[in-house]
Amino acid sequence: MFATVAGISQRAPVHWSENVTGAAVCFPYVIALDDEFITVHSMLDQQLKQTLPFKEGHILQDFEGRVIVATSKAVYILVPLPLEKQIQDLLASHRVEEALVLAKGARRNIPKEKFQVMYRRVLQQAGFIQFAQLQFLEAKELFRSGQLDVRELISLYPFLLPTSSSFTRSHPPLHEYADLNQLTQGDQEKMAKCKRFLMSYLNEVRSTEVANGYKEDIDTALLKLYAEADHDSLLDLLVTENSCLLTDSAAWLEKHKKYFALGLLYHYNNQDAAAVQLWVNIVNGDIHDSTRSDLYEYVIDFLTYSSDQELVWKYADWALQKSEEVGVQVFTKRHLEEEQNSFNPDDILTCLKKYPDALVKYLEHLVMDRKLQREEYHTHLAVLYLDKVLQQRPSADSMGTEVTEAQAKLRHLLQKSDVYRVRFLMEKVQGASLPMERAILHGKLEEHEKALRILVHELRDIPAAEDYCLWRSEGRDPAYRQQLFHTLLTLYLSPSSSAPELAVAAVDLLNHHAAEFDAAQVLPLLPGSWSVQLLCPFLTGAMRDSVHTRRTAQVALGLAKSENLIYKYDKMRLKGSSFRLSDKNLCQTCQNPFCEPVFVRYPNGGLVHTHCAASRHMDPSSPRPGART
């Protein structure tokens, strides 16, 4: 048993034979002598480590650090192997746990710095032994604890280290393997497992202190593993901060036909022109890479966010030829600040002349999104809309009621914009069988009767006529609004308009918009055959408005009289008071005395000369003694 001076046992006992005649301690071993053998047990794990045949032994004792054993005829010295030799022998026989226990127990006999170096090396060697046995979890912990230079592990894998790497393996070597092929004896399944382990291990350590000083080697090796295994993490590596060496990585990606990833590598290394050209080749089918099925859209987004004008212009035609609708996004989806500072809209419009659909999209962007108030943009867009509408309606006699998308856009632009050339568009619309558009343009020219006549008599569109009045009177004074509705009512009730539906429309107009009419002007226009019951809502509303107007006027008059009375009272109160003016009073503005009884008095009691008060009102910077009464 092992016990301290306090009599406490802190280790498990060692089991000896019954006939032990002598014992000695040679740390970390306990040596015992019996009738036939010398046994050596470890104090660290209490296991039997060695047995030596030895008969007729009488004495076994430690003399000044040396173990002496004697018989009746001879004296022997037991000399232990050096601890490091023992540890290496254990590792050579793959007894990893025993080697680690022995190495840890040797701490008391070896200087601290030397022990740390030795122990780290033992951990690293043990890690490679576990790695060779595919015990990857154990190997990873040993590598971490032993602070392994990860390049030692990478160097086992052929071609993973960059050609520019200055790494050389540790000497003496940490393992007995030349490369992964020797370690796995060519077993492809084992080789694949080893590569998966290295991918996982490198991914874990690349952002830790372990990678300091050789991140390029780690990231380049990781890229090669990902590319070879067709791993999804390849793209994640390339779109985040990395230290992949361009030359080695580019050659490897090209070898494994990872062209999209190669483009990302070029982009990360500020070679956007090479990246885009590579992606364009993929889209064109010159090279094959199925990484992204939406690569064309990806290139468009890339160009959209690129600040390299030369690059954008170089591939603008290619993008538009593939798809005008998508390609124009290179210009329309840019950040507004960058677009304003870099690309001239006129240059873009010149480029888009060959692409009519893209031209429309870009003009919509300028007019609708950026809200640029330039006449040429609005007029150009309206003309393009009009041309498209006319193409869809080739016959001037066709009066189809279905409104196309282009026609709806044209009408919206004509209504909302105030900067296009109205008369120029009117000339184009004339004779084109587009009455609604003509009506809108007449409205822009303040030709309301013509516009309403088109809506009422040509189109027979009663709701559109009422909407027109609301649209053109928006934001205008009540008199302007009232005039529009009276014009519409006049058209409904004109002698030439004998259609019954117009009479019905007139009644509905009066009953639904009673507030927009002056009853005194309307009543003389109404046919005598109309009953009071027919116009009951209008007449009721007119009476209510009339009464409301009269009462509002009475209230306003009463308030005005009250205000006037208050002012009269204030005036009388001021006139009823008096004050003394003498040559001792000084003007608050010029500080001079009054020489005559002519002055200005302020509500705060301040007195000033008349000419000082006049000059103060002419010069705002002069002192302000108070508001003038």
UniProtKB/TrEMBL annotation:
<dbReference type="InterPro" id="IPR000547">
    <property type="entry name" value="Clathrin_H-chain/VPS_repeat"/>
</dbReference>
<feature type="repeat" description="CHCR">
    <location>
        <begin position="333"/>
        <end position="497"/>
    </location>
</feature>
<dbReference type="GO" id="GO:0005737">
    <property type="term" value="C:cytoplasm"/>
</dbReference>
<keyword id="KW-0675">Receptor</keyword>
<dbReference type="InterPro" id="IPR019452">
    <property type="entry name" value="VPS39/TGF_beta_rcpt-assoc_1"/>
</dbReference>
<feature type="domain" description="Vacuolar sorting protein 39/Transforming growth factor beta receptor-associated zinc finger">
    <location>
        <begin position="578"/>
        <end position="615"/>
    </location>
</feature>
<dbReference type="GO" id="GO:0034058">
    <property type="term" value="P:endosomal vesicle fusion"/>
</dbReference>
<dbReference type="InterPro" id="IPR019453">
    <property type="entry name" value="VPS39/TGFA1_Znf"/>
</dbReference>
<dbReference type="GO" id="GO:0006886">
    <property type="term" value="P:intracellular protein transport"/>
</dbReference>
<dbReference type="GO" id="GO:0006914">
    <property type="term" value="P:autophagy"/>
</dbReference>
<dbReference type="Pfam" id="PF10367">
    <property type="entry name" value="zf-Vps39_C"/>
</dbReference>
<dbReference type="GO" id="GO:0016020">
    <property type="term" value="C:membrane"/>
</dbReference>
<dbReference type="Pfam" id="PF10366">
    <property type="entry name" value="Vps39_1"/>
</dbReference>
<dbReference type="InterPro" id="IPR032914">
    <property type="entry name" value="Vam6/VPS39/TRAP1"/>
</dbReference>
<protein>
    <submittedName>
        <fullName>Transforming growth factor beta receptor associated protein 1</fullName>
    </submittedName>
</protein>
<feature type="domain" description="Vacuolar sorting protein 39/Transforming growth factor beta receptor-associated">
    <location>
        <begin position="218"/>
        <end position="320"/>
    </location>
</feature>
